[in-house]
Amino acid sequence: MIGRLNHVAIAVPDLEAASAQYRDTLGAKVNPPQDEPDHGVRVVFVELPNTKIEFLHPLGENSPIQAFLEKNPSGGIHHICYEVDDILAARDTLIESGARVLGSGEPKIGAHGKPVLFLHPKDFTGTLVELEEV
Fewer Cβ close by (within 10 Å): the C or N end of the chain? Predict the structure, then answer.
């Protein structure tokens, strides 16, 4: 069902500092920030040859990333994202197997302009999983 690893998302307390570290210290290609108001985040994608890193920073006080950073002030890995061919078929198969889809269960449009869903971390070894349709 799952395909490639699309990205690893890291919540960061300082978006500029994280971007500079990856750009200047590691020599990575760092894209400009983009606001994703539907998800309550400002994101920066770092492009690697085989995947991406997504920096997440709160956009507003109700951002789910704000709560994450309150528990983890230095930041940390927030979720991993896998690609799927058909997000609705993947959702239905997962629900049938007992996995919990977060939110309403209906895909939202993610930062890449494609449908995404999140799966409960307790169902996937403590890891928040995002699925993105490709």
Answer: N
